[in-house]
Amino acid sequence: MKNAEDVTFGSSGLNRAAASRGTEKARASKGDSIIFVWRGKILMDLESEPSLARFEFPHPLCEGALEIFLGSENQKNYIAFDISQWEPSGGDQPDSNLFFDPTQQLHPRLDKKYAFCELRGQMLNLSKREAELCSIAKGLFHWNITQKFCSSCGSLLKTALSGWQKNCGNCGVSHFPRTDPVVIMLITKGDKVLLGRSPNWPEKMYSLLAGFVEPGETIEGAVRREVMEESGIKVGNVSYLASQPWVFPNSLMFGCHGIAESEEITIDTNEIEDARWIGKSELLDIFAGLNQSMFPARKGSIANFLLEKWLSDRLHD
After folding, report:
1. Domain layout of the chain by residue ranges
2. Residue 194: how many other CB atoms lie within 10 Å
3. How far is it, in rounded angstroms, from Cα 185 to Cα 245?
4. What are the pLDDT digits (tens) for 22-44?
5. Are 196 and 208 in contact (CB under 8 A)?
6. Angle separating helix axes 302-311 and 280-288, nearest 10 degrees
7. Is 267:232 a contact under the CB 8 Å cutoff?
8. How many Å is the maximal CA-CA distance in the chain?
9. H-type alpha helices, 126-207
10. Sign of the CA dihedral 251, 256, 261, 262?
């Protein structure tokens, strides 16, 4: 697919400067551009046109915060700081029971135009560079915070390479950020597309089927297996379309197009709640808001991106 990296979180061409990781060059210094993360949420500037909140180092909130080197540009670094140790007031806590957390947290040492927000709710407000910075920061902080112990011997790990590696001082094993490969597939049969619904999604939300690639499996094989397991639909030809880093928490989505060879749906209720064929004209009304019998995947997701391409007959453009 041409222009595949137009998908949200697609590459902005950031110089990740891997050779600088673990050196003094990668440590925050005066004038570097810095961003803040709190428990997976990104600090946004919500005034006028929302955008990623960026400051210059040094900044008071950096003190005692976990620091990660993101990349460099024009002899200045991009550095992210995680301030998850900060505890907001009781009434300003996120709701962990929701699929999407709409709450915003205000830090008492910052102007009220700044708030920590769920990235999925702000991704359309970001430039390509801002989106890439947020994607790196969110993914790396999640890995650094959750990967505390060596999986070989159970010893506490030590952070290395400016947050891009962890080493075990006991057995010598090195650990690296984890990325899980996931296939997400636009399955079509004529002018119909297969959509499914997970039981924990917002009401009426339907999206493309998706699933993890298993060990020893090709992307094409994963597409056919996942679709058969979840819907009972047999898939023939499979082609790759585009990819999207999806750090919720650590996936890389491989967007594919599959041609269905059968039509009768038999869902696995352990995997999905519902699946159905939707005609192109009906889906056009759904995207336009004229038909509210269902809601498509969130704008900014690769599922929405691929469906829009299919609806406009630009899937392979």
Report:
1. 8-146, 149-177, 180-311
2. 25
3. 15
4. 999 999 999 999 999 999 999 99
5. yes
6. 120
7. yes
8. 62
9. 128-146
10. positive
Enumerate residues 6+ apart whose C-beta is below 8 A from 264: 232, 233
Contact call for residues 82 and 38 (beta carbons, < 8 A) = yes
Write the burial class of residue 78 (CB in 10 Å: 0-12 exposed, 13-18 middle, 19+ buried): buried
Pick the CATH number of 180-311 from 3.90.79.10, 3.30.450.20, 3.40.50.720, 2.60.120.1440: 3.90.79.10
Residue 10 half-sphere exposure, CB side, CA atoms within 13 Å? 16
Number of residues assigned to the chain: 317
Spatial contact of 79 and 28, defined as CB atoms under 8 Å apart: yes
d(CA 279, CA 189): 10
Does residue 216 surpass a pLDDT of 70? yes
Which helix (H) or strand (E) segment holds residue 303: the answer is helix 302-311
User: What is the reported pTM?
Assistant: 0.93
Average pLDDT over residues 121-132: 96
Neighbouring CB atoms inside 10 A of 187's CB total 26
Evaluate whether 171 touches 150 at the Cβ level (below 8 Å). Answer: yes
Q: In this structure, what are the phi and psi dihedrals at residue 84, rounded to the nearest 5 degrees?
A: -65, -15
- Reading the block at residue 155, the tokens are 């010893």
Give 91's pLDDT tier (boundaries 50, 70, 90). low
Give the type of residue at 214. E
Average pLDDT over residues 231-245: 97
